[in-house]
Amino acid sequence: MRRVPALAAVLGLFIISSGLAVAGGPQETRPTAGRVADLFATAADRCLACHSGIVDASGAAVPIAGAWRASMMANAARDPYWHAAIRAEVLDHPGFQAVIEDTCSTCHMPMARFTDFANGESGEIFTNLAMAGVAPGSSSGQGEQEGPRAQHNALAMDGVSCTLCHQIQADGFGERHSFGGGFAIDTSRQPGARQIFGPYEVDAGRTSVMRSSSRFVPTKGDHLSESELCATCHTLFTNHIDRDGHVGGELPEQAPYLEWLHSSYRTEKSCQDCHMPLAEGEAPISAVLGQPRSGVSTHVFRGGNRYMLSLFKTYGEDLGVTATADELDAAILRTDENLGESAGRVILDEVSRTGALLSADVVVENLAGHKLPTAYPSRRVWLHFTVSDAAGDLAVADCVSDGHGVRCDAGVDGYSGAGCRNRHRDLGYRARNDGAHRRATTAAGGTCTGRL
Q1: What separation in angstroms does the CA of 18 have from each of 81, 101, 149, 234?
Q2: So what's the pLDDT on residue 376?
Q3: Stretch 288-304: mean pLDDT, rounded?
């Protein structure tokens, strides 16, 4: 078994991650149903049989099943950076391990965790990773292979999957209690009667087919196209715990939805418009008895985390990734295109030369509907600045690619020695430039920290 390398930084955006909350929160607003004999969701393999191999009227592929399988959503529970972050938090605060695992599994292992919560139990992370053979020191196939516990583990490792998002109801959308995994799922209906929401009306015959194969009833729900659906997990307020184990203040760990809400995109584009772009022309939503539909959303979940996708491709067997190499290559290509065309625009403006001094104003325009970078504090954006001579040879460069990521000079974090503040530098004509920008998180005493 190859070891997945320890990660000190993530070269990209949109890693789905969860922080540490210890008091109050959305859990108190969710329905409880006591002990139940069944699970509240189904792993994606039940859905993929019908929602794969879909093409539009022109014969072009409509990425749904394979695209989801290679996305950060599908691999939220397999993300090794997330594993390391949770492990670090637990080592820092061992007395809060149960709370940390329950909180962070809410959006990274949501189907299993919701089932746990509905049964009056807490979500577990490392037990599920060990059972799946993903945790350090574990082996594939460890634990029960059949029965309810194995099914529960399959839900945990399925990440953010079909029957989680499509069961979410519109109750409380956009309200504070819906954030941090406070999504609402109906626990009152019995298996075979539970609703699965989508943007289209489904006739009685096709409803019967889907109910028979999936145990869910397809129901029209326009709320699945609203940004508030995404906000249930992509808005997270975290309670800080100091070294002495005291709960301190609250910080907005991840707030892309709130950033979007205060941007012009609020009236122009939803989260889904950018991250789940529409297929070209009409297309069915099922390969079995599918009707041509307009406005079909692809399930590419495009973002900016190219580095993690490349890790999934390299260490997919060790991490239990189910996507094929071709599917991951397609996801990486979409990520490159998204970063190059939709995330931001860099403009070189007002270039002038006075003797040996070359001056240029560099303008960075944010094209995203939120901050760039956004959400989890470790995400970084590099402004890569190069100068070439008349022959086209490189004269000055601040960062270089080594084939595995981007390496920059010492001090690239862009932090000043005093406090935790991003510093501004006039780059000038120097080989050593500070071009990395990220949100700075400060611990007690004013020192920078990578912990939550």
Answers
A1: 11, 10, 24, 9
A2: 85
A3: 94
Q: Other CB atoms closer than 10 Å to residue 115's CB: what's the count?
A: 24
Distance of alpha carbon 409 from alpha carbon 75, whole angstroms: 32
With 80 as the cut, is the pLDDT of residue 362 above it?
yes
Residue 331, both tokens: 């996801």
Q: Interhelix angle for 97-108 vs 110-118, to 10°? A: 120
Q: Which sign, positive or negative, has the C-alpha torsion 277, 228, 193, 38?
A: positive
Residues 6+ apart with CB under 8 A from 273: none
- CA atoms lying within 13 Å on the CB side of residue 52: 12
Alpha-carbon Rg for the chain, nearest whole angstrom, is 23
Collapse the DSSP code of 107 into the 3-class scheme (helix H, G, I; strand E, B; otherwise coil) and give the result: helix
* CA proximity to 29, closest of 81, 129, 106: 106
Q: Is the pTM of this model over 0.90?
A: no
- Residue 259: Cβ within 10 Å count: 19
Alpha helix stretches (DSSP H) within 235-384:
256-261, 271-275, 306-314, 316-319, 325-338
**H/E element holding 80?**
helix 80-92
Q: Nearest Cα to 14, choosing from 451, 380, 264, 439? A: 380
What are the tens digits of pLDDT across the range 151-189? 999 999 999 999 999 999 999 999 999 999 999 999 999
Q: 381: which strand partners?
A: 437
Sign of the CA dihedral with 320 first, then 37, 198, and 257 last = negative
Nearest-angstrom CA–CA distance, 297 and 276: 6
Q: Where are the beta strands (DSSP E) in 242-391?
A: 247-254, 344-354, 357-366, 381-382, 386-388
Question: For the chain, give me the number of helices (H) and strands (E)?
Answer: 15, 12
- Degrees, nearest 5: CA angle 256-260-263: 140
**Mean of the per-residue pLDDT values for the chain?**
82
Amino acid at 429: Y
* CA 204, chain centre distance (Å): 35
* Structure letter (DSSP) for residue 61: B
| Beta carbons within 10 angstroms of residue 403's beta carbon | 4
- Helix/strand/coil percentages in the chain, nearest 5: 30, 15, 50
| Tokens of residue 19, six digits | 């922080």
